[in-house]
């Protein structure tokens, strides 16, 4: 029996505005799509929070025993400046400014994205497709939408006809907007605008002569609209209908709204069962923005090289800080808040580290099963990680009481307690005990340093059998001693 059969998960569905019992389309399997980054600059800490939230969700679904196919794309074409319909491609612009090939820009920032996410201990998605790798699929979808009559071609570009779609479907249902209000609130179409209505969005844009990222199509050389890639890749890898679509709150409109319209126009039914949106991260109470200087890069957090911070913080401390808030709430980052999280994180790691040595008794004075279920109840309530964290600190309290002899635990309960604590902290929240890894490497250096000193003394006393024994036995353990002009150093082989 899988855990998901006994742990009833509820998720907040942005589409209905309600917490719903999570029932995937096929029992035991979950298809999840999350909008990935546009790789034209270093990944933003706010985006890291979004991806970390969905990493926690991915981890929990897997923990419950679901077989999860998690698709997170890389946007490497088609995303125009200001998320607008006109304007320069974000990647092409960066390539022009830095005199690089667009694919050099893509490579550079994809590597940066992966390296930061790895530091935060995010699991890789099952598939990470790119927009440029799916041009053919995108063209096929446009043909399909044209055939169904929900798009029109003009001067080598193809636009989605929002008004026509809205006659039979409901455009705006995810973001709670009404097309009539949108029309009333927009200015007249500019004279040079070729769209029928300002609400229409591009499925394919004609490439002007200077546009470097271009592909041939039935409508001439051009490039796909930004919203289209997610419809193409989610359909290809997860099917016409799948379980979870996630992304940042800021993508609800227009991006996700347009995804729904495209898929419904193509297939005649809704693409997604549960829409999940992660909220934003602010810095010292204000929106993060490069232009105002109220901004911090992930690497600056780890090195402490930003005057917003008094010191560096490890990726796990930052992750713990993020997990202490619910993913649908706005979270404000500040030096004080991080410093408080660091103290909490250390307390938690110290307590976990001491669990193996807890004394056991003939009976338990507290109910480990009940504590464990409280942790699951928190996660089952729309992934309530702050509630889970509170339950972990309840465990820290118990651990200390057991040490002081004020609470008792049986050997069997102790094993369950340790195992559950590890599941919650390391498997589900994705934390790592980085401080202890650092501490261990410090300890290793001191121990090997001591052995090097003893070996030097043995050599000075011409006791070569001892000095050789130290060198050879360390080598057997994979620790290589290297004698140089300035003394002996060691390396791990
Ligand atoms: Zn998307």
UniProtKB/TrEMBL annotation:
Cofactor dependence: Zn(2+)
Highest taxon of the lineage: Bacteria
Location (main, coarse): cytoplasm
Chain span(s) of sequence motif 'HIGH' region: 37-47
Keywords: Aminoacyl-tRNA synthetase, ATP-binding, Cytoplasm, Ligase, Metal-binding, Nucleotide-binding, Protein biosynthesis, Zinc
Chain ranges of the Cysteinyl-tRNA synthetase class Ia DALR domain: 374-439
Entry keyword annotation includes tRNA-binding: no
Manner of cofactor binding, per the entry note: Binds 1 zinc ion per subunit.
UniProt similarity note: Belongs to the class-I aminoacyl-tRNA synthetase family.
The protein's assembly and partners: Monomer.
Full protein name: Cysteine--tRNA ligase
Gene name linked to the record: cysS
